[in-house]
Amino acid sequence: MAEEATVSAEGIVGLDEPKKMTREDWRKKKELEEQRKLGNAPAEVDEEGKDINPHIPQYISSVPWYIDPSKRPTLKHQRPQEEEEAPYSSVGEWYKRGVQETSVSTKFRKGACENCGAITHKKKDCLERPRKVGARYTGNGIAPDEHSQVHLDLDYDGKRDRWNGYDPEEHQRIVEEYAKVDLAKRTLKAQKLQDELASGKLDQSEREHDSEDEDEDKYADDIDMPGQNFDSKRRITVRNLRIREDTAKYLRNLDPNSAYYDPKTRAMRENPYSNTGMNPDEVGYAGDNFARYSGATINMAQTQLFAWEAYERGSEVHLQADPTKLELLHRSFKVKKEDFKEKLRDGILEKYGGEEHLDAPPRELLLAQTEDYVEYSRHGAVLKGLEKAVARSKYEEDVIINNHSCIWGSYWIDGFWGYKCCHSMVKQSYCTGESGIGINNSECVPFDEGLMEPQEEEEHKTLLEMHQDKMMKDKKKKKKSKKNKKHISEGSDSEDEEKKKEKLRKALEAEDKRVKHVDAIMQVEERKRPYTSLQEVKAPTEEEMEAFRMKRCRADDPMAPFLGH
């Protein structure tokens, strides 16, 4: 055979190159591959009997001729190798819970826990309450030993299995508990039915009807229509779908300031054509509120609400199933409700009295506010109708004292209040009339001659003396101003330099702290670094920039090693 291996004199195994396929064989091979890819021919089978995907390239499935030309195409090398897979724990293996209750020691053993006497742990690992005298010295109350736990080597799925180690018997106990509760309910219900039947409150037909619904299951005909029953235990939701041919609500008016469209509930409450001036009766869609609050919709909603409340109280009524019965029941309910309110009102008035307060005049007459038409001019004068009465406050108004004809606060000047009749700024003063107005408005101050202090007569000076005095005063003022300016400038410069030095010193200290903080963070692993640890939240000041330049390490600086950088 040409493809068999040949052994040379040096002991090296050699493989003969396979013969070249003929043109006919090559064409048949390609046709078979095409048929397999189309699904018309069965797929190729490997050495383990598994199908090989015909779309897999040949260089993946075929074994090279220089490795072993006798092997068929296979995908075994693409699958996990059993001999290389690590052994993992099985699904049923788990840690043992509890303690060994079968064999309990009666005396203390050497190497056991000094507190409880268990051999499986030491005193520092004991979880029992510390005893006053340990089991090592008393030999009493030796605790049972814990189970020797197995070492579990779980795979990826086993580590993330939330039910790993769960005991199915725990669920069986829950099922049994609920079965007992259900049995107790059935027994109690049967006993209640027997008592009602014995007392005559329930006849045989109703009992048979109740026995049929003991399982609390209902057929589809007994369930309320979708969206009609709002019981939280049996809530049914229906998606609000629209016909594809209808225009979407949000496309009716593309103005962003028009009616709001809620994409979650697909609702548009307001009229989308409200800003266009179109009549809501003429447009095809005027919003959900227009259809909701027009016609008999409000009465329909009230009737539906009454049906839900009646159903919760035990009345078998339905708006769609029996609307006539529901309407009659609703009318009788409203009549009874009005009678009850009237009876309750009469009872309260009869018991506590106060009926005379209910016969008070209307609020418009009490507050002197009516809806009578009154027309005013631009100056506030009444042109047509009666002027509206001003509502009075609870405080006293228009109280005139001390012969005044106006109230306090009717006059104001230069930030002071006074009386308009006499222009007096003193409260509770007596009115002086026109004479007081003249006196208060005059600029003269009475008795000012006696208040003025006599001034000493100054000596007369010549023009030369007066000029010399003026020159001396100007020189003194100039010298004083120069001294003040020099002192102020020197003081301000020194203070500015001190402030700058202090700011620079603080900036250098802050820069040292920042560099240390950055070095500490850079030593931490990248995934364990705090969030936004290297992020600045404000612009640096001039002192901080100067400190950064002073502390910055330059790689091209030849003196950097001597500076400790």
Please give a handful of descriptors for the protein shown.
4% strand; mainly alpha
Briefly, what is this?
The protein is mostly helical. It is built from 16 helices and six strands.
SSE order and pairing:
Elements: E1 5-7, E2 13-15, H1 23-38, H2 58-61, H3 135-138, H4 156-159, H5 168-199, H6 204-212, H7 288-292, H8 297-312, H9 323-352, H10 355-358, H11 363-366, E3 375-376, E4 382-384, E5 408-413, E6 416-419, H12 433-441, H13 448-451, H14 463-523, H15 542-551, H16 560-563
Helix pairs in contact: 14-15
Question: Can you put this structure into words, describing what you see?
Answer:
This protein starts with a strand and ends with a helix. The protein has helices at residues 23-38, 58-61, 135-138, 156-159, 168-199, 204-212, 288-292, 297-312, 323-352, 355-358, 363-366, 433-441, 448-451, 463-523, 542-551, 560-563; strands at residues 5-7, 13-15, 375-376, 382-384, 408-413, 416-419. It has 565 residues and is mainly α. The protein has 16 helices and 6 strands. The strands form 3 sheets. It has a two-stranded antiparallel sheet with strand order 1-2. α14 crosses α15. β1 (5-7) and β2 (13-15) form a beta hairpin.
